[in-house]
Design brief:
three-stranded antiparallel sheet, five-stranded mixed sheet, alpha+beta
Length: about 300
Amino acid sequence: MVAEDKAELGSLLEILPPVEFCCIYGSKLHPNNKDETSMIDYIIGVADPKQWHSENLKLNKDHYASWLVHLGGTRMITDIANDIGVGVHFNPFVSCNNKMFKYGVVRMHDLIQDILGWERFYLSGRLQKPVNILVDNLDIENVNTVNLKAATSAALLLLPSKVTEVNKIVQGQYHLFEKMYKPSLEEYASKNLLRFSSAGDKQVHIFQDCGLSAASTLVSSLPPSIRSAMGMKLGEKRILDDSGRVRQQVVIGSREEAAECMKRLVRRKVMVSSTRQAVAGLLTAGAVHGVRYVANKMRKAWKSWV
């Protein structure tokens, strides 16, 4: 992204209170997206959401649903985000410099926990795709490498021994995905779990070890919440790790069983978090914006189906 575009897309930050972290995510970053009317999506991390929203209400009261401003204020904003949603408050359809923005505000602690542990697997999922980081005071880009390695492990566990197909999400952003995931793939290649080969069509083919030992290594790199849930379903055993400490390891009877178990657990997390956030979004966006927001989501879903 050229400097002019980055400055233009980051213009909303100029009217908001200071933040610890901010990135742009979503379809606006895709080079094939020619829709000038689509919203620019922000993830904003702050130390204290209640304090931040209090300051933002003084600066940008019109960003919030009127009933929230008059009846609930900052306490209701954060209570709905934490108790109904997944810890994120979104303000959609915010107009700034002739562009439309949507920004989600989250406590930095909660953001880091989701990145490292997939506790809610909401923002961590968004950070598994290319983003444009505008502010990063706590080096979240580096923290996110744990999330990317876990995503690599999960993907490999679900994929066959030979991988050549490129999903349409990756097409057009291949170099960005390659930059994000290359370190994790190279690490697994150094452990002889993967090998790469280039074909005459200039496409890189990935071959992976599909044995139980390789599957166990992949599972060990999944977040603690996923490993723990898998252990409850598949069983656990105590082992000595490389440092001589005793730790629990998921018992893997077959790679297919482990992959299916993990897929069900992650799918449930996604379903629960998405539902909770959708309900919270309808409440906090207000009647008009709420209907527009849902309609916008349905329009995007329809485009992806046809």
